Amino acid sequence: MRHLMNPLDFSVDELESLFDLAENIAANPAKYAHACDGRILATCFYEPSTRTRLSFESAMTRLGGRVLGFSEASSSSAAKGESVSDTIRVISSYADICAMRHPKEGAPMVAATRSGIPVINAGDGGHQHPTQTLTDLMTIRALRGSLNGFTIGLCGDLKFGRTVHSLIEALLRYDNIRFIFISPPELRIPDYITDRLNAKGVSYEEVIRLEDSIGELDILYMTRVQRERFFNEEDYVRLKDFYVLTNEKLQLARNNMLVLHPLPRVNEISVEVDDDPRAVYFRQAKYGVYVRMALIMTLLEIERP
Ligand code: NCD
Questions:
Q1: Total-model pTM
Q2: For 179, phi and psi rounded to 5 degrees?
Q3: Which of 80, 157, 203, 228 registers the highest number of CB atoms within 10 A of its CB?
């Protein structure tokens, strides 16, 4: 039985097959409408989410399956002190696959060791968010045609942003990728990630001003300042509007640069940017459903119809 804890749990070839399947689903949704008839997905969300949880629910429903679950820790037995290990053992009798989000790093991994069904990490604290990374990779592959040979700028909260951590790790397996990390000094990328880049001999730069590097980018990955992971409100208030992407700043960028964002957006991208053809974050959210459909089918070992 396979779980998905980290994007590296799938080889590059396996990811290619997953994205091929996701593209096929996107092109022929009706063909897949009964692929998961009779199957049940449990969404165990101990931390708030709209996109990820509903994206999973939409994915399973579009495959003909059903969904049950909870969307906050206070409405689950965690409020009574139940461990994730016990919860997943019970859920293993209620569902065929589980997507779990938890504020504690490693909680879905602990659950997976006790689970009788595949577990998908839907975000664990500031650590990893593999299905967002699958979404990001599929978006880049679909809109650029390849996952090799580009310069990506990751901008915003690089310290607490789990989507950034997962995406960098995943991109380290592709060729000729240059990273530019754009953040205030307080929110710079953690050392364990730059250590990995150094060990692999991958080149990267760290800059503070978005305007200084936007013109070099093929992809700009914007992120929200992760308020819920700050220790005090004052720091959050000081840093929250450090970056705001506007049409004026976009004039400095290449005509074919893509702007990605895992969403939710707060202020870091001005709404005027949404109409620019380079802004692809809402399309990205749509790819997220297809890639989760492909993932559910893969982990449940369901043949293509
Ligand atoms: C991200 C997350 O939860 O880490 N959201 C998402 O899953 N689409 C990004 C964020 O919350 O900023």
A1: 0.95
A2: -105, 135
A3: 157
Q: What is the mean pLDDT of the chain?
A: 95
Ligand 1 contact via 286 beta carbon (within 6 Å)? no
Q: Is 62 near ligand 1, meaning CB less than 6 Å away?
A: no
Q: What is the pLDDT of residue 17?
A: 97
Q: CA dist 259 to 150, 155, 240, Å?
A: 14, 11, 19
Q: How far apart are CA 78 and CA 101, in angstroms?
A: 13
Query: What torsion, rounded to 10 degrees, do the Cα atoms 207, 193, 224, 156 define?
Result: 0
Q: Which residue has the tokens 């504020």?
A: 103
Is the torsion defined by CA of 289, 54, 109, 196 positive or negative? positive
Task: Say how many residues make up the chain.
Answer: 305
Q: Which of 70, 79, 133, 84 is nearest to 112 (CA)?
A: 84
Residue 209: phi and psi, rounded to 5, are -95, 125
Per residue in 181-191, pLDDT (tens digit) is: 999 999 999 99
pLDDT in tens, 12-38: 999 999 999 999 999 999 999 999 999
